[in-house]
Amino acid sequence: MKSRVNVLIIFLSILLSGCKNENQIPNIIIIYTDDLGYGDVGVYGAKEISTPNMDFLAKNGVQFTQGYASSATCTPSRYALLTGTYPWKEKKARILPGTAPLIIDTTQMTLPKMLKQQGYETAVIGKWHLGLGTGKVDWNNHITPGPNEVGFDYSYIMAATQDRVPTVYIENGYVDGLDTSDPIEISYQKNFEGQPTGKNNPELLSMMWHHGHNSSIVNGIPRIGFMKGGDSAKWSDIDMADHFLNKVKLYVKSKKEKPFFLYYGMQQPHVPRTPHPRFIGATSLGPRGDVIAEADWCIGELIKTLKEENIIENTLIIFSSDNGPVLNDGYYDDAVEKNGNHTPAGVLRGGKYSLFEAGTRVPFITYWKGKIMPKKSNSLVSQLDLFSSLAKLTGSDLRADDSIDLMDTFMGKSDEGRSELILEATTRTAFRSGNWVMIPPYRGPAVLKAVNIEIANSQKYQLYNLSNDISQKVNLAESEPEKLQEMNSRFTEIRGEGYNQIKKLELK
């Protein structure tokens, strides 16, 4: 009799365990690359570069062909991702210097805050670029507010970008490895006495600047902004990918017993492109191609870790990029010269900084082993929608105003997508509705010469039908006046008056 009871207890335990696993909320990992273009990934058409691990996620998950970042530059997209709010609603959501104050209000609901309420441990590892402190940071003491004050239990970040000072890692508000006898000083206005710069000391450089990157020199690389001190804490550029990856692995291993949310902000392929020596020559495209190969390897290592820790089947991975691609973005690094036949934007027009499609349409993949079946989806989705969708997934009643619950679409169970979306690039905005895109007139050059990218400025309205003109070659504004009027009216209804740099232009 006793043995039968024991068998029954074991059976019930297994049954209940199975029910618990069935209903258990998943770990969530967002892998967010930096300046990775639509055409930089194999499954999106790349031929000159191999991305087997990115391709693995796509071939075994949902690959979105119409997935968008909210903006064609980094800070606004990251703001939208974490808040579910259009970045043009926050005037401070622009490309930030390393000394900028935190632009997310500490009282604002965020993705990590919402997930914490649902029982998640939360972490950000990698690039931040959403500001720190309140306007004047003492880098030698506790830096607050920052990621920990907007919902992250653990943070290990770089403040801004790899090409901006301060060139140090920050863990939970403290500079990692700082020697207080060598304090850090940062300025974006004036150099510190006796400190060499890229502009005045080219003989000290291992990477030559092309535009804008000619201030303080760290590891032979000239940066944006001036820095003095903190030598023991300065990062090694060639080891950055490994460094962040190791932090990611340690975090995953330490949190595998409870649900966690990890925002993994990769620095590739943003400038300066500094692949580890293991990856130099991994592609024929020079450093830009090599750091994409390095990023792909990092993703493979993360997947391997999830498998080794037996949590791959209970982990939702979301992979995307903060904006579109750029080749020359401040340094002479052969990105242009060695690009060959590679097309970082794929079939799209424009790139980073642009209101054309390549500025905001990016690789976008969801993967969850055993839960998401392989599918290529043409549904229109935005990174804005992750907030409300993940809230639905985890049982939260919270929603963000600009974020739509598309969880069934992200799971591959539905083809429903957005009907409309505001796109942004450096304070300018455009409107996508159905298959149509309307770009209002804006003053300024049509091509941003420093980076050789069409940014979609024009004295006239532009209207494109993406269903048969994905490369935006034919402007239909004059031949489709009714459609243009319809688009502009709805756009103005959402966006409001006064956004346009050109006033009182009539539709023709």
Total number of helices = 9
- Going by CATH, the homologous superfamily of the largest domain would be Alkaline Phosphatase, subunit A
Which regions contain 5 or more consecutive residues with pLDDT less than 50?
7-22, 503-508
Count of distinct strands: 20
Please identify, by name, the CATH architecture of the largest domain: 3-Layer(aba) Sandwich
Label the structural class: alpha/beta
Q: β content, as a range?
A: 15-25%
Integer tally of domains? 3
**Arrangement of strands in the largest sheet:** 6-5-4-3-11-1-12-13-2-14
Q: Please, could you describe this protein's structure?
A:
This protein folds into 3 domains: 26-178 and 232-413, Alkaline Phosphatase, subunit A; 185-228, no CATH class; 421-495, Arylsulfatase, C-terminal domain, CATH 3.30.1120. It contains 9 helices and 20 strands. The protein has helices spanning 2-23, 52-59, 74-83, 111-117, 240-254, 287-308, 386-394, 407-410, 481-495, and strands spanning 27-33, 62-68, 121-127, 154-158, 169-171, 174-175, 185-187, 217-218, 221-222, 226-228, 260-265, 315-321, 364-367, 375-382, 420-425, 428-433, 436-439, 447-448, 453-454, 462-465. The chain has a 10-stranded mixed beta sheet, sandwiched between helices. The chain has a 4-stranded antiparallel beta sheet with strand order 15-16-17-20, covered by helices on one side. It is globular and about 65 Å long. It starts with a helix and ends in a 13-residue tail after the last helix. Mean pLDDT is 94; it is low at 7-22 and 503-508.
